[in-house]
Amino acid sequence: MGFNKTLSRFLTIAGFYTALTACSSNQPTVEPDLPEKEYFRLAQEALDNSLPTTAAEQLKELETRYPFGEYTVPARLDLIYAQFEAGNYAAAHATADRFIKNYPDQSNIDYAYYMRGLSTYRGAETFLGRYLDLNAAERDTAEFDKAFAEFADFLRRFPDSQFAPDAKARMIYLRNLIAEHEVSIAHYYFKRKAPLSALRRGQEVIQNYPSTPAVEEALAITIQAYMDLKLYDEAKLNLSVLADSFPNSKFLNKNKKFIPFELPREADPDLLYWVSLGLIN
């Protein structure tokens, strides 16, 4: 009786296993529909016809069906470009990152580093364009900072790359943009009657972005902030720096006196001139 029960149980399990095997064998398998070269050709054709989304789809198919094929490496490089041209900057960045990790010694690796920075840059630019109505303090330049760092990393590794001049130009633009952003935030703090915070933003530009056009206004911001804080010696010192560095500054009158952004409410001009040691005209 025990043997019969054991045999019955065995047959039941065997039947169940056979059914599972049959189901598994019925699952569809990924079979190459086209030769690897044809996927690559179709992708190139799509790129030539300004169809980057179609090209990306073909390149992904090639990568899936021929993960170790002859065209895998160039296809992955082209996928970065196709995703970028399609406006999918996050995907292009991720693909570039993956290429860098998988092929660190590949001859065209400089392109992947460059496109990684460019994808971050363009993505941040697109984001900022959508939210131009935000006030300066609500904008976030973190992605611009990231793009700057990625371009700097690229130039450190590949100073002689054909993409180096463009990366340098974009870094200059990014430095100017970030400095202008700090200046905008400083003015926001002035409106909020927070001169100390405005002062810190002005100092940030002077110390960290000394070669940018925003330095002139940053110096004016520090002068205004020091006066608001009644730190007139510091204001006078920065005024001399402004006059020496920017003798034709729009923040100075013909007598080299500081032109304030706005006078305090109900201020006595004569008294204000005296307590500010003649800094304010």
From TrEMBL:
Xref: InterPro entries? BamD, BamD-like, TPR-like_helical_dom_sf
Tell me if Kinase is a UniProt keyword of this record: no
An example of a Gene Ontology cellular component annotation for this protein is: Bam protein complex
Q: Name one GO biological process term.
A: Gram-negative-bacterium-type cell outer membrane assembly
Taking every annotated instance into account, which residue ranges of this chain make up the domain Outer membrane lipoprotein BamD-like?
Answer: 33-236
> Which key words are in the record?
Cell outer membrane, Lipoprotein, Membrane, Palmitate, Signal
Q: Where in the cell does this protein reside? A: Cell outer membrane
Q: Do you know which Gene3D superfamilies this protein is assigned to? A: Tetratricopeptide repeat domain
Name the membrane topology term.
Lipid-anchor
Assembly behavior: Part of the Bam complex.
Quote the function comment for this protein.
Answer: Part of the outer membrane protein assembly complex, which is involved in assembly and insertion of beta-barrel proteins into the outer membrane.
Would you identify the family this protein belongs to, as annotated? Belongs to the BamD family.
- The entry's protein name is Outer membrane protein assembly factor BamD
Q: Which classification does the entry list for the species?
A: Bacteria, Pseudomonadati, Pseudomonadota, Gammaproteobacteria, Oceanospirillales
